[in-house]
Each structure stands twice: as C-alpha cells, then as structure tokens.
Specification:
Blueprint lengths: L1 E6 L5 E6 L5 E2 L34 E2 L5 E2 L6 E3 L4 E5 L23 H7 L4 E8 L2 E7 L1 E4 L5 E4 L2 E6 L2 E8 L6 H10 L8 E4 L5 E4 L7 E7 L5 E4 L4 E4 L4 E4 L6 H10 L3 E2 L11 H8 L5 E4 L7 E7 L2 E7 L8 E7 L2
Parallel strand pairs: 6-17
Antiparallel strand pairs: 1-2, 2-3, 4-5, 7-13, 8-9, 9-12, 10-11, 12-13, 14-15, 15-16, 16-17, 18-19, 20-22, 21-22, 22-23, 23-24
Length: about 325
C-alpha cells in the first residue's frame, strides 16, 4: 500500500492511502464522534404493512435489496451494494463535523431544506419524472487538487413534497486499504457521492472518494418507478445522435481500444504542439499520442482527445499508473 502526504486547505495535512485502480482513501483525522460508515438507520413512518396491517415500524431489507414488508414494486435495486428503501421519514444525521466542507451547497428547494434540517450536507439536487432528488452526505472533507471526500451519503427521493424513498449503502466489510483508513481516521468514502445526468435519461452514481468512481445507474420511469441498475455498457451523447461506450474506471489503454471500436478517432497532437512533460512523452511512446496535457502535481490528472462526426471528446484519467483509470470525460457536440 502506498501512502501519499498532501496539504489541503489552511495547511491541513492530508494522508492519501493509494489502493487499486488509482483510488485514494482517507483524510485528516476528524474530531471525535461516531463513525460515518455503513447503512443509515431508517424507520418507515405512516405506511401500513400489507402483511401484518401494522403502521410504521422498521423497514427490513431482503437479500436482493428489496424492502420488505411494505414492499413497493416501484422501487428496486439490482446492485448488491446499494438498496432503495420506501420510507417517509428522514434519518437523523450521525456524521462527523466537517472542518473544511466541500461541494456542499445551499438548499434550492423545500425538500433539500428538510434534509439539511436534519444536519446533512446537501451535495446536489435534480428533478426526474416528478421526483425531486436530493443527494446528501454526513461529512465532506477537502483534499488536494480540488478533490473532495464524502462519507455517509444517500439520495432522498421526494414526490409532491413528501419523502418517498431513500437510496443507501448496504453495510459491507471494507477492503483492507479502507480498513486501514477507517482505523486511522474513522471515515470511509460513501458509494453515493454524486449524480451525473445521462443523455439517455437517468443518472450515473459516483462514489464519494477524492477522485470519484462510477458505481451504478439510477433510472426513473414515467410511471414513477425507480431502479438502481448496473452501469449501461454504452451511453448516448449529443442528444442521442452518437453512442459512447461506458469507459468509466477503465485503464486508458482499454478505454482507447473500446472507443476506437465504436468509431471514435484519437486526435493527434500537431507538430507545433509537442509533448511538454515526461509523463506526456511516456504516453506518446506507449502508443497514446492523443494525450493533451498532464498535471505534474496533485492526483495526476491527464487528458486525452478523440473525435467522431464533429463531436470532440476529452477523456480524463487520474493516478500515476502507466495506464491510469478513466475518471470522467467532457463532450463538445458539433
């Protein structure tokens, strides 16, 4: 395991434990308080159990991620690590105080104000098929290169001003590198850190690590049903005009091959714009001449350029591996 020391805001020492696929864990040791990992405790309020007829009570979750009793077929998760639970009651905040919170925003709706009123940090809001989605976290900590660690996250789904369901993490044993981070700092990145709207509809869910990793997709159907699904293998872009393979989390060499297979052409650097850094020269030598820029500090972002049918795609990787993983992309549609 590699350990990297960086300096965050106001000179706060940050410890980044580097795991597989270029991921980084942990941060400044937080103030004393409960750990911000695991499943949020949720009580179902105001619903009748169709089996027992009892009102309210704890919502239980079966092995497939479906809430029972009081199962609502409109809500389903096909991703083992995530559950979607029908409920009308917000969980009480049980996170850690954020000395240097990042990416949190002021509530833009009454629904977000209700979540913030429980002590949660508001990460984002979005509308989808009559729902108001509010992404929240119990703790957010700034890191190097404008990164942000978020823990104890969730997604609240409101409809007609009433909370209908929560998307949460299933409690899971952390891998070894995360166990080290939790033992040192009492926190771990949430699997529910951010939502990115998809061209074909719905959202892609990213975790709350310093450099976010794509985790799953969230789909909202016109009839109000909500599902958490594995990531689509292919996305549409530019209003459905083009297809883009889902290259999130892939090493750049595999991502490149996948893009080429789908008709995306690497954009070569012009002769008057030679590579400037040793990292860029290295990528050119290993057969990635489309590299545009590489950062010499922080988490080591690099950009690679591709084009197709007038559209320009910029792919971003992070980390120091010879084939770092893709952490995002930008699209300019021609």
């Amino acid at each position: 395991m590699r350990v990297r020391i960086a300096v965050g805001l106001a000179g706060v020492a940050m410890v980044l434990l580097a795991g597989g696929a270029g991921r980084f864990y942990a941060a400044q040791a937080p103030a004393a308080g409960p750990h911000a990992d695991g499943l949020l405790a949720v009580q179902s309020a105001g619903r009748s159990d169709p089996v027992s007829g009892k009102e309210g009570g704890e919502v239980r979750v079966n092995a497939s991620g479906i809430a029972t009793p009081g199962h609502d077929p409109r809500f389903r998760s096909d991703v083992a690590e995530l559950i979607i639970t029908p409920t009308e009651q917000l969980p009480a905040w049980r996170g850690l105080a954020s000395d240097y919170p990042c990416r949190n925003q002021s509530p833009q709706s009454a629904e977000a104000e209700a979540v913030a009123g429980q002590g949660w940090l508001i990460m984002a809001e979005a509308d989808a098929a009559g729902y108001r989605l509010v992404t929240f976290a119990g703790h957010a900590q700034s890191g190097t290169s404008m990164t942000c660690l978020r823990s104890d996250g969730g997604i609240a789904l409101f409809r007609d001003g009433v909370l209908r369901a929560l998307v949460q993490e299933r409690r899971r044993p952390p891998p070894a590198v995360e166990r080290d981070a939790i033992a040192l700092f009492g926190m771990r990145p949430t699997l529910l850190g951010a939502l990115e709207p998809l061209d074909q509809g719905g959202f892609r869910i990213f975790d709350g690590d310093y450099v976010g990793r794509a985790v799953a997709d969230l789909q909202v159907a016109p009839d109000g049903s909500v599902s958490i699904t594995p990531q689509a293998a292919v996305d549409t872009v530019c209003g459905g005009r083009l297809q883009l393979p889902n290259i999130h989390n892939m090493p750049i060499n595999r991502a490149r091959a996948n893009l080429v297979d789908h008709g995306w052409v690497p954009t070569l650097r012009s002769s008057d714009n030679p590579p400037e850094t040793a990292r860029e020269v290295g990528f050119v030598k290993q057969g990635l001449p489309e590299v545009e820029t590489c950062s010499g500090t922080g988490v080591g972002y690099c950009n690679f350029a591709y084009h197709k049918a007038g559209a320009v795609l910029t792919v971003t990787t992070a980390g120091e591996a010879s084939n770092p993983p893709v952490v995002g992309y930008r699209m300019q549609c021609g």
